[in-house]
Design brief:
This protein is an alpha+beta fold. It has nine helices and 14 strands. Strands 2-1-5-3-4 form a five-stranded mixed beta sheet, sandwiched between helices. Strands 13-12-11-14 form a four-stranded antiparallel beta sheet. The chain has a three-stranded antiparallel beta sheet with strand order 6-7-10, with no helix packed on it. A hairpin with a 6-residue loop joins strand 8 and strand 9. Helix 2 crosses helix 3.
């Protein structure tokens, strides 16, 4: 009979839990779940050896173990520190941790651009979430930041090194999932950068998984870049028969159009573990070459459990009203049936609402397209012309 596994008791943020020997504090905290689990920018449970680089997962150990209850004098990286029996850990209950995390975010943002409005990762970026939770409004950094030219590494992936936080996850993917790693971290210290060996392309069947593990927008899908914002897309679980991988993916659709294909993610933003216990990495054929809904068997809407902006458009369990239009059109796609300008008397081509100085009046649509009225505030303040401050919320023209 197999020897019974020894369980260790650990208390994290006043919640006690028993975990097998060899469990890290981070994984013990994930078992409790929610806010108690420290953020992790470099640790990735499916990548051996990951963790210990970013310091976002720091926690305070206020009692080392039952045998030696002295506190550990410095904060420790929870992804790299294993629990001991009787250990007491503070994460969100420790002011020191919150303060240190704020410092770590400030360091991470020293070189990371604040280009979320144009970054494809926005809405699903671990650093963006961390910045909102622990960042400060301003920076104290006065020196020149490091910047890099964008580089296409292979046909499907673009590297934007300026955004990289050097978490090493992508190099672990290349080491552990592909048979031929041609990229890595070159140079040291402030000069460190991810690059390929003498401009070699990253080109093998599983390289696309680097995009999924990158916690920021440094590695992006060239077939999806700038096509859409993730929160406008509807994630759907789908599968297909694939001879390279298990073929279970998330499709990111808008209507019938598949904008991108990714692996399925769990609540920690990592690829899901499949029924057979293996991580659900997907191949490049599924990810980049199957962009038609007809390539897939759709299972249903993805449940987004992460506290990301994508879950704001959460639509699972909503009842979609029956839409008879397709039947009406006998299977044909709806298309533009009429031009509103031909049909509506209000939308007249000669009327330019953005160009008239005040709000439109009935005359504007009855023979005098340049006629306009007065703003409410102009009347109240006795302005003879449109209010120069443009304070009238009823009129978008000022
Ligand atoms: S490119 Fe992304 S995954 Fe790779 S080290 Fe940089 S931040 Fe990490
Ligand atoms: S997640 Fe622990 S150091 Fe990065």
């Amino acid at each position: 009979m197999a020897e019974e596994q020894k369980l260790l008791k650990v208390t994290i943020d006043n919640i006690s839990i028993e975990v097998p020997q060899g469990t890290s504090i981070l994984n013990a905290a994930r078992k409790i779940g929610g806010e108690v689990a420290p953020p992790a920018m470099c640790y990735y449970s499916k990548l051996e050896g990951s963790g210990g680089k970013c310091r976002t997962c720091l926690v305070e150990v206020s009692a080392g173990s039952t045998a030696d209850p002295r506190p550990i004098p410095k904060l420790v990286a929870s992804c790299r520190t294993n629990v001991m029996d009787g250990m007491v850990v503070k994460n969100i209950t420790s002011e020191k941790v919150i303060d240190a995390r704020k410092g770590v975010v400030e360091f991470l943002l020293i070189n990371h651009p604040l280009d979320c409005p144009v970054c494809d990762q926005a809405g699903e970026c671990a650093l963006q979430d961390l910045g909102y939770e622990h960042g400060s409004e301003g920076t104290r950094y006065e020196f020149k930041r490091r910047t890099f030219i964008r580089e296409d590494i292979g046909p499907y992936i673009q590297l934007h090194m300026t955004r990289c936080i050097l978490c090493y996850r992508c190099t672990y993917v290349a080491d552990q999932l592909t048979n031929n790693r041609v990229h890595g971290i070159l140079d040291r210290g402030d000069h460190s950068e991810i690059s390929t060996y003498i401009s070699k392309a990253i080109d093998n069947d599983f390289s696309g998984n680097m995009i999924d593990v990158c916690p920021v927008g440094a590695l992006t899908d060239r077939t999806f870049r700038f096509k859409n914002r993730v929160w406008f897309l509807k994630p759907m679980d789908a599968h297909r028969d694939c001879d390279k991988c298990h073929g279970k993916v998330t499709l990111w659709n808008r209507g019938d159009e598949v904008f991108r294909v990714t692996s399925r993610k769990d609540e920690w933003g990592e690829v899901q573990t499949l029924e057979d216990g293996k991580p659900g990495w997907i191949c490049n054929t599924c990810r980049f070459e199957k962009k038609n809904t007809s390539d897939w068997v759709i299972e249903g809407p993805t449940r987004i459990s992460r506290h990301s902006v994508i879950s704001q458009g959460h639509y699972v369990d909503t009842v979609v009203p029956n839409d008879p239009l397709e039947k009406v059109l006998q299977g044909r796609k709806p298309k533009l049936l009429l031009d509103i300008h031909d049909e509506s008397e209000v939308n007249q081509l000669q009327v330019h609402l953005s160009e008239i100085p005040g709000p439109a009046v009935s005359n504007t649509f009855n023979g005098n397209p340049h006629a306009s009225g007065h703003n409410v505030t102009d009347v109240k303040e006795d302005y003879k012309a449109p209010n120069p401050m443009g304070t009238d919320s009823t009129n978008p023209n000022v």
